[in-house]
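Because showing beats explaining, we think one record worth quoting, sequence and backbone structure tokens together, and here it is:
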Amino acid sequence: MQPPPQFIFFDAGNVLVSFDYDQGFHQIAERTGISFSSIKEFYTTEDIQSRLENGTLSWQEVHNTFCTRFSSTVSLEAFSNAAGDIFTLNFAMLPVVTALQRSEVRLGLLSNSCQPHWDHLCTCDYALLPHAFSILVVSHEVSVAKPEREIYMHAQEAANTPADRIFFCDDLIANVDAARDVGWDAEQFTSAHQLIHDLNHRGIRLGI
């Protein structure tokens, strides 16, 4: 039987927190008076989210382009707050992370995120973020996003752990498959209950 993992990486979105991009678009619309549909079209046709996440576009550039496109005077702070406040904590994961913190397994976060979203997650007193994790690998900060191989190698180096002793949990199967391709043990996240089962199967007994 394979020994238990030494390091666990969690994804953030749809694992630790749920999110709703439309909520951000509505909030920007409320702050600026620009229609929801125009804002959503701006984001989707320009492929803004993925470019922010892989570091090829900065949030300051998005704000500048937005203000020019729509003749808006919204401040960067107001724009960021409206765009970033889109998350809801997955309360079912609280006892899981708390139990893991009592164990000898180290925890890290491996997430595709952009500056306004990450800033919001780190400054709004979420019970899990960011202090519960010893290593934070966030795509816009390392300029590469899942499922690219490079971000997994970066995370493994940061964890200083052999590939076969890392366990990873992500809601997207493409990201899970990419982790397996670099030698990690990985499972798709469907629920906290299923994650507890997956960890128990690997010898990590959480007692919950």
About this structure: Strands lie at 7-10, 17-19, 87-89, 106-111, 135-138, 166-170, 185-188. Residues 7-18+87-201 form a domain with the Rossmann fold fold (CATH 3.40.50.1000).
